[in-house]
Protein: DUF1989 domain-containing protein
Amino acid sequence: MTTRTTPDAPGPHRLDPQTGTAFELRAGQVLRVVDPMGEQVSDLTAFSRDDPREWLSSGRSIDYADTISLTAGHVLYSNRSRPMFTIVSDDVGRHDFLYTPCSPETFKIIYNHEGEHPSCFGNLAEHLGRFGIAPDAIPTTFNIFMNVSVAPDGRLRIDPPASKPGDAIELRAEMDLIVGLTACSAELSNNGSFKPIDFEIRPPREGCDLGLM
Amino acid sequence: MTTRTTPDAPGPHRLDPQTGTAFELRAGQVLRVVDPMGEQVSDLTAFSRDDPREWLSSGRSIDYADTISLTAGHVLYSNRSRPMFTIVSDDVGRHDFLYTPCSPETFKIIYNHEGEHPSCFGNLAEHLGRFGIAPDAIPTTFNIFMNVSVAPDGRLRIDPPASKPGDAIELRAEMDLIVGLTACSAELSNNGSFKPIDFEIRPPREGCDLGLM
Structure:
């Protein structure tokens, strides 16, 4: 149910539908995540390569940005309040940082589905396990292209992703990272069909800041 | 800056302003958290007593409730998708599960405050440490009485708590827990002044369900 993709090369790499991977990303490198067919979510998480007890924190990131709508220019923080990523470009501007990755329990509790079902949690757990990261350590993921809105009464609504074929987001690593990435397995998040996710690792660019990427 | 409160007795206990504590709560026991003076936030987190790698998950709880506005009747889930608490009564109905506990970095990044400042993170880290729980393991807290709203564009707004003097929330433990609890130290969350938080541990009640509490 998962690919064995390990980006030894910068890519582009393809994650087949309902699969995931994990890889190292060096400080300064840029992770480009592309939705090749449109309307497909990709769950992202990260840990410090030097000390995986430092993890990507939705709460810290939302707190410091003062918004749940993170896009180009925003920084994603760790639980230690240190920058892990900067979003340097974003074609879509709709991503989610509230939901945990879909898991076997998600499909049981939300979808009333019994039996086996691929899940982002399962895919992340399998691939991050190669780096010694336990399933229990997986936090709320940054759900790229997931289209979530909050009603005035607090209720959550999931709409089809706003991403069109070829739309991308680029995140610059602000420290050496272990990254987990999926092509999401949840029906509702992807408008009912499962598509691949492409990604690429671009080298640091000297003298380039946000405006020049 | 913190009290040494450890509830050997059911209480009521008082957390002095800008302090915190940690304690065990048995399955079936009800934790009653009271805002004695009004407009005061209390950050709550929990870990399984049997295996502290299982922790209170904002993402799972929000996902399964389909709302960020958790109140009486809602279940708070662990990272393993198991119920940790059920909210059995709630006088206020406004709590937050998006923000991480205020920390020394919060006061630097958000408030531009240099030097020492009491924080919920510091108080939780100190008291949970007595149970062998590391600071890095502290997740997004359930911020009781914290009044957060999300604008249509995703921006977050913190208003004074809606809690009046004596308002309370009651949470029934659904497994044996180690609980961390604070009287919040962040100016903005508490309408600019720091007040105590009271709490009490009530025994399991035979034959009582949600409607009877």
Remarks:
- Residues 16-167 of chain A form one domain.
